[in-house]
Amino acid sequence: MNAVKTSKLVKEFNGLVAVNGIDLEIKKGELFSLLGPNGAGKTTTINMLCCLLKPTSGTASILGHDIIKNPFKVKDLIGVSPQDTILSKHLNCWENLSLMGEIHRLESKELKKKSEELLETMGLTERARDQVSKFSGGMRRRLSIAMALVHDPEVVFLDEPTLGLDPQARRAVWEYIAELKGKKTILLTTHYMEEADCLSDRIGIIDEGKIVALGTSEELKRNHLDSQSLIISAENFGTKVIENLRGKYSVVEKINGGLKISHKDLDFKEVIDYLYSQGVNIYSAASEQPTLENVFIQITGKRLRD
Ligand SMILES: Nc1ncnc2c1ncn2[C@@H]1O[C@H](COP(=O)(O)OP(=O)(O)OP(=O)(O)O)[C@@H](O)[C@H]1O
Ligand SMILES: [Mg+2]
After folding, report:
1. pLDDT at 306
2. Same domain, yes or no, for 219 and 243?
3. Is the same domain home to 178 and 203?
4. Residue 233 lies in a domain
5. Do 73 and 111 fall within a single domain?
């Protein structure tokens, strides 16, 4: 059984199609990332799966339970860390966690144990008794993630879990998410390519309400990048050499101390042989590793905010 399954899921807001027929199957224990530009429909998708928004059409289920017919069951099975952190600012950190545990009817002993564990992981133990109104943005995000996990849900939705965190805090959260891998089903959205790359089992690129590419990071790079790049550190190449290269390869850029050449099925040896034949001094040549960001830009034509 899939942990998350959607079929032709659509959400319209007064004629604006925010989610435009999403078909998604996320296996139990899988970590799936939704990557997409601003307004792509990531949060709207998550909000429907969490029963916070009613789909305009289509269906979805969590562990076999329909989100429209059985929202109470679904809510028991899921944990959510929303994009806009929702915390009770007049309560302290511990009280916020307790409140969430009580909503999910956790026994007090279990709640205490789980809260202590999560506060430790999220680096909040020392601040457990401080009022949340005094927390920084990053501390609020970390508490929000802890709140999504306190009742040990089977499916966890993390909407931009590390947005606004400093690099150290982000890495700490990554480590914790990585620890959850395989134990929980996780659907996360992120704008950090590195985050999607290092954490996800599979990635869905979403644009204008549609999944436009789907696969592992390797599959996306392999299937969607149709050119290879060679970075050459070299000296002594004239405008004629550049002109000739530009006549043959799709992208030839002069970069600091050399050249970058990109082309579909680029024959590296052919490039090097040509440069040698023209008396160019070559110091090094390396193929550029394809990145998820290249894939994303190629597919959506947009650069993510970061
Ligand atoms: N409650 C709403 N009423 C009207 N329009 C909405 C509402 N919620 C979202 N939208 C619109 O739906 C589209 C998708 O928004 P959504 O928040 O799902 O995008 P997102 O992919 O999460 O973007 P971001 O990366 O900025 O968080 C946007 O055009 C947005 O303005
Ligand atoms: Mg969003």
Report:
1. 41
2. no
3. yes
4. yes
5. yes
Nearest ligand by distance to the CA of 38: 1
Q: Give the residues surrounding ligand 1 with Cβ less than 6 Å away.
A: 13, 16, 18, 36, 38-44, 83
Instruction: Collect residues with CB below 5 Å from ion ligand 2.
Output: 42-43, 83
CATH number at residue 282: 3.30.70.980
Number of structural domains (the chain) is: 2
Lookup: tokens for 27: 């296996």
55 with 177, same domain: the answer is yes
Q: Which atom of ligand 1 is nearest to the CA of 41?
A: 18
| Residue 302 lies inside a defined structural domain of this protein | no
Predicted confidence band of residue 35 (pLDDT cuts 50, 70, 90): very high
Ligand 1 probe mutation, 44, 56, 207, 302, most atoms within 8 A of CB: 44
CA-proximal residue: ligand 1, atom 2 (nearest): 13
pLDDT at position 304 over 70: no
Instruction: Determine the pLDDT at residue 290.
Output: 81
